[in-house]
């Protein structure tokens, strides 16, 4: 069964080549939807045999949806530029076992890395994400950040992806700061209302869950740090929502 690889990118020259190589292990085409990168992302992608579509960034979900029209196959393997197939996922796809199963989408487990260190605690593993789906019955949501695949019959698996998302805490904080801006804007657009105590309750709940229930407490300072990162940005999402509410009420 033929599979289309789909990637969205912006200034991903460090990652895009390895991502495309990973996709071509199982895909007969790779489509890259690039948001007018300023570096060599497009040059590298083209040299690797990918077809590049230029498109201003529409948001995480809408950008992926835009790319689907250029994919000739029904089954889509939609990686981010900093993701790679783990061997178990490769073997599953190559076996074509999914063709005999009733599922139209598969949740994979992310193996997240900070530099060379795998972070498998404080809620960072198993970090399920759907990257393999049939576009006839499943599609990305229109969310601007952290889109979800909407499918008829999605399956949680024990298959894995490598995710080389960050080299430093600075990068984590920078990315999550942008994400919470978008999340707060989406909550406002959906008519969500926050109360003054929501940042505190959501932040504390996130920290407690990650530190105690997600094994952070077993990983010393690192466990506390990653739980604190999760908590802080849960807090900030609702703090930013409150600010947007006040601005909207004054206008």
Write structural notes for this entry.
Its EC number is 2.4.-.-. It comes from Sungkyunkwania multivorans. This protein has two domains: 3-166, Spore Coat Polysaccharide Biosynthesis Protein SpsA, Chain A (Alpha-Beta Complex), CATH 3.90.550.10; 169-250. It is globular, with a radius of gyration of 19 Å. The chain has helices spanning 16-23, 41-47, 60-68, 87-95, 169-189, 198-213, 220-250, and strands spanning 3-9, 29-34, 51-54, 75-78, 83-85, 105-114, 117-118, 127-134, 139-140, 149-150, 154-166. The chain is 40% helix and 24% strand. The strands form two sheets. Strands 1, 2, 3, 4, 5, 6, 7, 8 and 11 form a nine-stranded mixed sheet that branches. A two-stranded antiparallel sheet has the order 9-10. The protein has 251 residues and is of the alpha/beta class. The chain is built from seven helices and eleven strands.
